[in-house]
Amino acid sequence: MGAIASVKLSEHSAGFRIETEQSAHQLILFPIGEMNEDVNFSEISQLILNLNPSVKNLLFDLRGVQSLNSGGVRSWILFIEQVRSRYACQFKNVNELFVEQASMLTNFFGRNSASIESFEGPYFCSHCKTRTIHMLKPTDVRMTKQSFTPPSFKCEQCDGDLEFDALEDEYFNFMRNVKT
Ligand SMILES: [Zn+2]
Predict the structure, then answer these.
(1) Do the domain assignments include residue 87?
(2) What pLDDT shows up at residue 5?
(3) Distance from the CA of 156 to the center of ligand 1, in angstroms?
């Protein structure tokens, strides 16, 4: 694996950065912080354009984005459309914020179906009143035309059954656009 580098973005994007790690054919990108209208994705595109031509795949690790507003969503969609036209892109550890957007906006990960490795699933224990996040794979969720059934988990504290802590039909809607 290559070294981890932090991409310096313009000072307007103070609350946001992207760390990258390059291996032979792949660049892993970790966006971290607040994704809003101040984030300058053209700087990130520029970095990607300057990559070694041996890099064929981009892997986005999306667990580090803490907030996302409408300006950030717009810039992200344009950016993703652009990079997906040149690179095979995969997404992993997709956090709740991104799942919620992707379930509302079908082009959130690009117009064509996206390759999603794993994503967060929120669960709740009504006995302990605690919320926990489990990392799910698309194949963990049973999908029919009408409904989605997430996997079951036990509470680590009381061993009781956890409830899924979102509306399944809304939360998993993005899976209709996932490459299988
Ligand atoms: Zn519990």
Answers:
(1) yes
(2) 66
(3) 7
For residue 146, the model assigns a pLDDT of 86
The DSSP letter of residue 146 is S
Identify each DSSP E strand in 99-158 by its residue range: 115-116, 119-125, 130-136, 142-143, 148-149
Which CATH number goes with the domain that contains 76? Answer: 3.30.750.24
59: in domain = yes
161 C-alpha to ligand 1 centroid (Å): 8
| Burial zone of 65 (CB within 10 Å; 0-12 exposed, 13-18 middle, 19+ buried) | buried
- Ligand 1 midpoint to CA 100 (Å): 25
pLDDT band at 54 (very low <50, low <70, confident <90, very high): confident
pLDDT (0 to 100) of residue 2: 53
> Rounded to the nearest whole angstrom, what is the distance from the C-alpha of residue 23 to the centroid of ligand 1?
41
CA of 146 relative to ligand 1 center, distance in Å: 30
Task: Report CA(154)–ligand 1 centroid distance (Å).
Answer: 8
Range of the structural domain that residue 76 is part of: 4-121+168-179
Give residue 1's pLDDT.
47
